[in-house]
């Protein structure tokens, strides 16, 4: 059951990685609010857009883009603004949590990991700010992860970027606040997307993670939608520079 936020109707929403995994659930969630959604991903999203149009009555605007190519990302954001109006909700969602040890990391891998997990977030924020100012405000939601809060091993370049997302969010919230632009972080726990189930969700690891959860039910992509819509809407108009954790009670904040 997804809550309704009437102020999201007609909003111009841009999502990175909006055609699969958590991003696909977010795209559907915003479409069901009546928002105008544009998203980018590397592969052709025509079948997914057809599905969304059939299920919600609204068709997202999909663009193929490698988000580590910053000029291409900025061009996609500009195209989204032409199609749907200035972006008033930015969701930096796309990421890559490829497993690795410190010994395996080369300079090239480090640069790639920061490019896809942090650098593109910053430049997407930069690209939407002028339009949000002209629109009288907006909401930026940067999707991070609880991984670095847990002190997890197995992907140090990724968790470094996660920590950077939180730090960047706080700084941009301070900078953009006078223009009524809010910047928050949404931090999911282990969400069992098709990718996670295929590559890394071993039974013993799932069982160990369940032991750490207060709520004994593994997360699904749709579990992230309600919190995202809340941060995008005026219901959270007094929130900025914050981190909203949705993880079934693995980490405790405050």
TrEMBL record:
Residues 11-193 form the Ketoreductase domain. Pfam families: adh_short_C2 (PF13561). Keywords: Oxidoreductase. CDD domains: SDR_c. One of its GO terms (molecular function) is oxidoreductase activity, acting on the CH-OH group of donors, NAD or NADP as acceptor. Transmembrane segments: none annotated. Belongs to the short-chain dehydrogenases/reductases (SDR) family. This is SDR family oxidoreductase.
């Amino acid at each position: 059951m997804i809550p309704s936020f009437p102020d999201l109707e007609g909003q111009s929403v841009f999502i990175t990685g909006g055609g699969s995994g958590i991003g696909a659930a977010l795209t559907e969630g915003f479409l069901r609010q009546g928002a105008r959604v544009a998203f980018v991903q590397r592969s052709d999203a025509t079948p997914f857009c057809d599905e969304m149009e059939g299920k919600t009555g609204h068709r997202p605007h999909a663009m193929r883009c490698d988000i580590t190519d910053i000029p291409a990302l900025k061009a996609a954001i500009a195209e989204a603004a032409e199609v749907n109006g200035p972006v008033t909700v930015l969701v930096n969602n796309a990421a890559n949590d490829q497993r690795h040890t410190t010994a395996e990391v080369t300079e090239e891998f480090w640069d790639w990991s920061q490019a896809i997990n942090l650098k593109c977030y910053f430049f997407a924020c930069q690209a939407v700010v002028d339009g949000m100012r002209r629109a009288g405000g907006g909401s930026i939601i940067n999707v991070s992860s609880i991984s670095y809060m847990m002190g997890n091993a197995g992907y140090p370049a990724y968790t470094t970027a996660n920590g950077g997302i939180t730090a960047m969010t706080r700084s941009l919230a301070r900078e953009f606040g006078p223009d009524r632009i809010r910047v928050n972080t949404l931090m999911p726990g282990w969400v069992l997307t098709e990718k996670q189930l295929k590559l890394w969700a071993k039974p013993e690891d799932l069982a160990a993670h369940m032991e750490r959860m207060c709520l004994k039910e593994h997360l699904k992509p749709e579990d992230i939608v309600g919190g995202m819509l809340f941060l995008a809407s005026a219901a959270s108009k007094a929130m900025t520079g914050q981190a909203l954790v949705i993880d079934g009670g693995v980490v405790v904040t405050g």
